[in-house]
## 1
Amino acid sequence: MTTSSPDCLFCGIVAGDIPSTKVYEDEHAYAFADLNPQAPTHVLVVPRKHFSDVADLGRDPDAAAGLLAGIRGLVAQEGLEHFRTVLNTGAEVGQSVFHVHAHVLAGRPMGWPPG
Ligand code: AMP
Ligand code: ZN
């Protein structure tokens, strides 16, 4: 079974080939600091296995549950009770890396709707 995609930035980070600032990890998920933080806490949570976006991830319910469990593990570890979770899907709405990732943002007031 192929679990990583060649030339994928976040597969490289999960594998440890590309440096990152690890915040949390478990069996299914890896979480690291966003290079360009948009809030005092801005962490990306990714499944260890490659999926291009959240719709692709939904094809594998076990992996999808693993990503949610990873978010839960991260926020429990960091003591976050209030946070925003964003999964951009498609370049038009801001997805720039095509390995599904949940942005977890916290530490400042946030407006709605998002821009
Ligand atoms: P998106 O635009 O939703 O695809 O989110 C991609 C995010 O990845 C952006 O917030 C970038 O700042 C972040 N990013 C890109 N390269 C890296 C990297 N090498 N390490 C950490 N974050 C990164
Ligand atoms: Zn990948």
Note: DSSP finds three helices and five strands in the chain.
## 2
Amino acid sequence: MTATPLTDPFDRAIRYLRVSVTDRCDFRCIYCMSESMTFLPKAELLTLEELDRLCSAFVRLGVRKLRVTGGEPLVRKGILTFFRAMARHLESGALEELTLTTNGSQLARHAGELAACGVRRVNVSLDTLDPARFQKITRWGRLGQVLEGIAAARAAGLRVKINTVALKGENEGELFDIVEWCAAEGHDLTFIEVMPMGDMGGTDRLDQFWSLSDLRRRLEARWRLTDLPERTGGPARYVRIEETGQKIGFITPLSHNFCESCNRVRLTCTGELYMCLGQEDMADLRAPLRASPDDAALDAAIRAAIARKPKGHDFDYSRRRVQGQVSRHMSHTGG
Ligand code: SAM
Ligand code: SF4
């Protein structure tokens, strides 16, 4: 029997689940984590079997797209077991897309098997093509390893989308290099505005903030951009660069222009469901999950949570004050 699909109070059908499978990471990006991050005790995490059960419940309730994220999803031990488990939903046709967002450090090892599980696209976060700057931004990362991972993904037949966080005073001077590199390599590219998430141990996020409207103006000074009508239900807007034929995305999560079509929710590695990236409200799904092997209570908890999905978020960078800042880190909710 098909369950009634999840729909929130604003008549938005929930089709997209982002699931953070770990809060841990082998990098310490300056805008994402402090260098001395404390991670959750392993016992707090959902097991791979629990993640399977929870994600399968969402698929049964109408989720069509699953994005695995973190922390760094590919550092979670045994994570390929989870991908193999989710492949069954692709095979049955219940799930349309299984994908992941990764820093690329472990892709060289896993790309082939991810492709075998039915993954067709990966988002790889890469903010610079300069090895020294890469190390400065990620603190612990090595650019060469990520480039090898990207090459392995392509060799395995995966499409690659590069996610680049626009960072004032860091990658501003590389704007054209990054765009041209993606054009030459055949990668899609999306720029992301820095969001006020988590305590950065003294780093002022407003110092890192480079608005995408300024970034866009700089692109327009060199190329002809055409707005594309494409919408994904998320905060991305797309343009085509006429000279290169490339599609470029802009994610401005602080603008409110996407909330009305929001089709997504986020699950943390401890089973908390966040109905909005920019709000503190969440529902604990681990308790109903562990309370009974039967899924009835779990389904009811998911439906009750979706019934609380807010209309939109409260981020606001205006007047150089961060309003509506949320205390958790992006690596907790899964970016
Ligand atoms: N570790 C993986 C990665 O880096 O792709 C997946 C998790 S990471 C939290 C997901 C995305 O969030 C990355 O593209 C990262 O650049 C972005 N991100 C992290 N902190 C952010 C922030 N404060 N503002 C905007 N984007 C952020
Ligand atoms: Fe790790 Fe991704 Fe956060 Fe960087 S952005 S610290 S790679 S989780």
Note: Confidence is low (pLDDT under 50) at residues 317-324.
## 3
Amino acid sequence: MWGVGTSAYQIEGAWNEGGKGPSIWDTMAHTLPMVDTGDVACDHYHRLEEDLDLLGEIGVDAYHFSIAWTRVLPEGTGEVNQTGLAFYDRLIDGLLDRDIEPWLTLYHWDLPQTLQDQGGWANRRSVDWFTEYASVMRDRLGDRVKNWITINEPWVIATLGHLEGLFAPGLNDWPTTLAAAHHLLMAHGSATAAIREKVSDANVGLSLDCRPAEPASESASDIAATRHFDGFRNRWYFDPVFGKGYPQDMVEAYQALGRLDPGLIRPGDEELIATPIDFCGLNYYTSVRIAAGEEEQDNPEGPVGINPPSGFTEMGWLVDPDAMERFLLRVHQEWSPKSIVVTENGASYSDGPVPDGGVHDRRRIKYLDAHIDAVRSARDRGVPVDGYFVWSFLDNLEWRAGYSQRFGLVWVDHPTQQRILKDSAYWYKDLIERYSSG
Ligand code: NOJ
């Protein structure tokens, strides 16, 4: 199954239209000097038909997108906004008309501001808020949508949003970070059960981000730092979701540092987090080398601009398909989900239109080709990878990096909203055709 992905805040725009309420990203965009905002983004809200036709033209089997919680429940809970729901009805019907399978993500980072005002994910009640929202979506769309992703990238939400202050809601506190992470995982378990309860043939999972890490040297201190980094970045999420509970070494480390509120993890919570899922969504982009002192650092440099050093993307991310293959094997061996779906993989390169009218993004094709090869070889080694989504369908708002970082198969000229299929889109189309013809 070959697909492409997007998320609501990154493409929809229309931030205050059709009865939509404000999210934490709207607040961040309007209170900080952000380079770009999602107020208009790719104007997808108004260009739905054109974008559906582009998806049809690329020929994808599946499309993954997210719902803007505040389009549907402007206050976060309570009153449902029919105009917002109608937009997603049109999107889903448009996909089904084109034989494209909808993969719906419930939460891709845009928490209703009203809920943030009550503590957001750090408040245990967020589990109930999210379950209510998931149930509204299930009741409305469960007849047509079978593939559900509850939460996208819990580490990013918790850490970049509540510790590093880089992403909404822009906080800087360890206990809040671990509380947000815990409630996100509980919300995932609770929503999974709610969807399953009414949609008997639902395929439910979540998208976990990962960062494979190798020690920078064979020194004992680098090896220990790498082990800690893996706990902080990967195991804290994979272990409880797959029934192993929180990793004990990390619980002890966080407790010793006073980061973990003693009352946070209560009896029954870990069982809820481990509610069985149908697939593990995996978002993979890059890997890191960790030296002592870097055990909680992840890409500290940030985007590096349009001439990245060879072997890196413009996000400053190392291109490392072998690490992807090894991580897929690890997921299979260590956590054994029934099925794995690569829910995101892709590269930021800013190659744009040239006088012949095309976009010759050779570096993206090379990146995708190498990573798809890695997936193929993991499958040959017995890893049950059942789908692959390129991030992203459109050049969109790369969060705090704005429109400077382009991940799309489709070029978007933001001032005019003109779309152009890049060479990578045609390359992907050919690949999909080759597969479907056997
Ligand atoms: C992960 C996120 O889910 C997505 O929103 C983001 O644009 C890509 N990675 C690239 O950074």
Note: The chain has one domain: 2-436.
## 4
Amino acid sequence: MPSDIISSNNNLIDKKSNALLSRLKSKKSKKMVKNALEFSIKMHQNQKRKSGEPYVVHCIDVANILIDWNMDITTIASALLHDTVEDTDVTIEKISESFGDDVAFLVDGVTKVDNIIFKSEEHKQAENFTKLFLSLAKDLRVIIIKFADRLNNMQTIEYLSPKKRKEIATETKEIFVPLAHRLGMASLKWDLEDLSLRCLDPKGYKSIDKKISESSKKSSVVIDNIIKPVKKELKKYKIKSDIFGRYKSISSIYRKIQLQNKKFEDIYDLYAIRIIVDKIEDCYLALGVIHSMYTPMQDRFKDFIATPKTNGYQSIHTTVFTSDKRLTEIQIRTKEMDNTAEIGIAAHWLYKGSEEMKDIDNQVPWLRDLLSIMSGEDSEPERMMELLKIDMFEDEIFIFTPKGDLIKLPTGSTPLDFAFAIHSDIGSTCVRAKVNKKLVPLSYILTNGDIVEVETDKNQKPNSGWLNFVKTSRASHVINKYLRNIEIEESVKIGNEILEKGLRKAKIYNQLNDIKSRIEEINYKNFNEFLSDLGRGRIILKDVIAQLFPDIRASKNKTSSDTDFLKSARSESEGINLDGVRNLVVDYAKCCNPIPGDKVVGYISRGRGLIIHRPSCNSLSSLSGVKERLVPVNWDIKKDISFKTKLHITCLDKAGTLHEITETIAKENINILDVKTDVNIGGSADIWIVCTVRDLKSLNNLIKSITKLKNVDAVERVFS
Ligand code: MN
């Protein structure tokens, strides 16, 4: 048995395999494809297609399509193996071991693309899906194999259930047809489009198909009447040509009937005459010849050779009036252009040589090359670039929702970004995420094609920790906005408290509404903004009051009762002693008004004798040569003696407040000697209490306890 003959125990497989091998020219190619065939036959040996044929027949058919498209041997071998990893126990490592890294790379690419293809039940987002498809494929040849695979699946679709048929046909129409168009695979596009139309509207398809065959006799006469004289004329100019008539695709006729409301009989361009020549110059020569024979329709002439279409399509189109006064479209192009029209940019890739084209880096200059060619009239280079750059830069990923919708995210995105991309509320209340049905942290890095599911909880709130891992600006924007609002809310609350207490203390609480209405005078647009700044300490209430009410000053009006208080407080002491010298004649400083219990220091004045200050007194430090004139003094107090003190309490004028205060004082075992209250407009009150305390410590404790009371704004000891 010759080494390039396959012999399995199935006649169909043998026949198909050997036919495939016979199409290959080089020994090396035959050997590689034979190995792939044998491997594939073995791996798929127990599998059958819905048609009942052995599964491997599909793989051989796909390989044949790729040979039709002039694809390289790596692609053809990969096509034979394209379903082994997906459908059998074979691993990519095994493929790599047996057939090398290139084949393994392509098979892996096809497997990855296959894995996403049926995830999306509705193909609403064909655009995104196409991008995902391209970004997973990484190598254009993966797409080409996938196209051949899809073409064969569509050709054999009648064996599937009606539901499955409709599903696959819809996907073909919405994903594969537009992609084939963009990549310039015109004839594949027509084939796929017609095949899916046959599934989706069998009646419509059949009626057109019938009409075409009915009119074909007549048309073939017309076509022949053109071909013969043209061929003869071209020969005169030594232009070698291949001329044939070609029907428009059924779906393009279908569209004309449906969309333009035309009758089949009224469509003049049901078919076109195609002239294939060797060289570009010959295209223009042939055009000249045609135009000398038939009258061209002026606005129907298109030169896609000078300005190719975005997808790389090149040809000359002209519509002429033939002898019987019919309009006929004539297309003139070279063999290479015809090939490009067949398999689009794949052809371009083939002509550039295959070896260097396998990875993304190497595809970049090739794509640039391609794009520089595609600078034509109705081209959309930005769009084309956008479509293709995913392969090159991989800066986006596509994520499925559980329903099969696709969400586009930047690379490095997390389930939280996904949640925010769906809706701000979903992101803000997101608590848990599942990727491909497995629970993951919210910071998990997603990869292309993941299915993500998130759970929410209405009690969840965004937190600043999320900012550490979200990738999308949408997510961080919403989180930041939320955090900012919380901060503002908080600071407004604090600001409001500061304002109310401060106003009561300054006894101008009744001015609250006045402040609200005059907020613009201190450069605020709204009251909350003012409160927020007050709460954050950006402005000081005292300054605000001084600015708005220059007349109000915290004036301390001395009353006789204050003087009485001082006298009575000091009377508790026997006086001042200095180094044990008692009953010194002293004067008490008016600036700090010391009373028994305060730490004191003596100042030897010029002329006024010894003056008693508190050491913390401000005016003391401003006196000159103060250190030499200071002497240590003590109150001459008998032990256990208590002294009088006076407290000024600012509080809300609410029932029970005074009671709470007096109760607090009583709890501290302190006697109250006198209470005076004064109610202000605006709901605040002043209370003065004179009481006797044992020492400073217990006085301070008392002040603390009263300050803590709910309705009390401030407590201060009064010295004057
Ligand atoms: Mn397949």
Note: The first helix runs from residue 11 to 22.
